[in-house]
Amino acid sequence: MFALLWLTLVYISNSLIAKKWKRIDFKMAVLYFMTVALVGLYGEIFLDSAYNYFIGHPLWRYNILPIHHAYTASFAVITWGLYGFHLYLLHGSLGKWSINKTKHLVLIFGFEALILEALLTISARILLGKYMYYYLPSDLWHVSSFQNFPFYLMCGYVILKSLNRFKTDPVFFSAMSASLLLVLVFLV
């Protein structure tokens, strides 16, 4: 139910931005969903593992369905994927305003990710009774952290470059991403 609420919010907000109901190309929407989920989950494990190694504690911990030392969660496939769906819908609108340079899209990704993750975990607290994740630094009230911003810039760059490559064969790359996510969530 929580995921359906966010799916609806993502669709309606992007339709409002476009000032029309957004049409969805299923193959491309799935490609964005899977690619962002893949980069997001593997990136979370890499970043929080490195942060823990160098700083001595993780940057965040997942509270709902945690996996891999709570660096990520099995539910994060859905949350990162929903962000991918948002990017899919948003990229069509941004092109109308000539916002299509990688550096601009990466900056938008970075700032948006901080805001949306805070909204996501606050809404989880309201609807599910606990924060989805908890940031140890308190610079953004434990619902996000500016320390994560450089990761979001790198993540945005990797996602944009991956999507550009993956669009050549969306079915294959969606299936590959789904397979790698299944391994990460259920087999490792």
List keywords for this structure.
188 residues, mainly alpha, two-stranded antiparallel sheet, two-stranded antiparallel ribbon, 4 strands, 5% strand
Question: What does this 3D model show about the protein?
Answer:
- With 188 residues, the chain is mostly helical.
- The chain has one domain (2-12, 29-187).
- It contains six helices and four strands; from the N terminus they run ααβββααβαα.
- The strands form two sheets. Strands 1-4 form a two-stranded antiparallel sheet.
- It is globular, with a radius of gyration of 16 Å.
- The mean pLDDT is 93.
Write the layout of secondary structure elements.
Blueprint: H1 2-18, H2 26-55, E1 60-62, E2 66-67, E3 72-73, H3 76-96, H4 102-128, E4 133-135, H5 149-166, H6 170-187
Antiparallel strand pairs: 1-4, 2-3
Helix pairs in contact: 1-3, 2-3, 2-5, 2-6, 4-5
